[in-house]
Amino acid sequence: MFARINAAALTIALAATSVAASPIEARTDSCNNGSVQCCHTMTDGGSPAASSLGALFGVPGTISGLVGMTCSPLTGGGLGANSCAQQTVCCTGNDYDGVLVIGCSPHSLQG
Fold first, then answer.
1. Domain boundaries defined on the chain
2. What is the C-alpha to C-alpha distance for residues 45 and 41, in angstroms, rounded to an integer?
3. Coiled-coil ranges per the record (predicted)?
4. Contact at 8 Å (CB) between 109 and 78?
């Protein structure tokens, strides 16, 4: 079942890359304009994994910049129970149910 989903996502991603579209720019401004997230993985928006997930979620065009994958929001500055064992990032782009978050940059919780 998982192999079929991966094959379908790859097919969709390949089809999406053959359509000419303008790139989606990942914003890198301060986290005052975004949300602090805890992401399991950070990758380039043009990577095969990010492209496949983008196609699966219907993201138009090419994703540029860094994206977070498997993310959950941190509230309250990440203090107490809101700690992050993976990569803490500031994301200013679209959030696709935490599976894919566009426009992320590394972020320190130590203000």
1. 2-106
2. 12
3. none
4. yes
